[in-house]
């Protein structure tokens, strides 16, 4: 079953329906989710196992992928499969309550936690980059980030524009796996957007999946269209092909200022993620291969120009924020001393949600039947009738979101909410309202699962930004509480050396055992967000901890 190296990459699509070939539903779920990550509808570059986020992969190589699938099919219900950076390395006898899979991706001892070391190991076939949900098998396509991106732009709207982005223009860049959610998220928040993207195939993909409305022929054309929509108060998204390192400075030169400016190119990875400014006869891939040092230097130079222009636009009145790709730090390394003059999106707009344990809760229908997701949408609308943000998001999502791969949904839920949703899903599987089990997971970008000083834990109240004990505790808590599979990664969205984070996936298969597992792990996991922020001294988290019954000895709660 392991293909010879010369064989072409297989086209992967997860099995659907209520029959399984694995010995338990958790193993079947892990297998289907791994496969779903690599479905051409879901992954950005499935042929190289790259799911999203620069080179975030689901398995180290094709032989490793086949071995994982084979092993999951034979894995007993009291065994655990270990995955080391995308390669299945052992099956251990554990217990029925243990996770069926434990994954560790891209982790390096801190002194060596840099791209140079990683690249050598990657090239030697010893590691892979796991990003967040790529290497932990819970990526669900661009929808996965859409809700989080919407939360961010809605947060910006609340803070700066009276609650709506209507009548505003946002400029950003990057239409990749994650960045592709930006145009639709801005639109959902009521605004107009211009998104700069270097790769025309990415623009095309976002048009086809309805994340982007239209393409402009030039930057001037994009601005003219955006101004017309802004004047009409119409929410609309415009793409424009080009290099952000050229077009954002061009905005400055044209003396035109948007209302909001941000960026989601893959700046976290200077060698593979950010395209330097090229002459018409240059090709990024060829330059990278032939002259890697020159490539890196030019990528840094371009990121510096990009950030200088963002700072100029900020000085002129644009609301500028970093969108979690480490662009500011790259520019600072390239000499832009004041790169951090604009804030990251978490301290700017998201931290209050994290204090309540609110974060991205996602679920996937293993039946493959969109009707199962529709049923869960209706059930959650009934379960949380007073949550206005959830009501408007789910209503919109049910009508407008095109599924990619297995039908899936995402919404943000907090501490003592996620377990209620999960319990309900488990009951719906048990009584046949859903045709097959539901996988429940989340991004690693969550309230209590990540240490990332330039993103999720930027500017913590007590200065504990770089403390990664919390992420490790989250990993341990998930294992102790009944997760189906758990992962611990390094690097994620901000790159090597800048973050450590943990991922949790659980399963609702309708059994009492699943109910018990869900009731613990989906309380404790978001609980870690409340705990982490209460410990850092946030009043909101302290209130939530008191009101919702957490036991925090050092705080006498
Ligand atoms: P991706 O690699 O799939 O897409 C990046 C896109 O940027 C590509 O389409 C690429 O062509 C384009 N690009 C690169 N250089 C460019 C340039 N100079 N000008 C214009 N376009 C350029 O990555 P993704 O999954 O979309 O993620 C984007 C970034 O956002 C990553 O750094 C990721 O880690 C980060 N991220 C942030 C969050 C968050 O905090 N909200 C969440 C996930 C990912």
UniProtKB/TrEMBL annotation:
It is found in: Cytoplasm. Transmembrane segments: none annotated. Residues 141-349 form the Urocanase Rossmann-like domain. Its cofactor is NAD(+). Binds 1 NAD(+) per subunit. It is an enzyme of class 4 (lyase). This is Urocanate hydratase. It comes from Deinococcus malanensis. The lineage of its organism: Bacteria, Thermotogati, Deinococcota, Deinococci, Deinococcales. The gene is hutU.
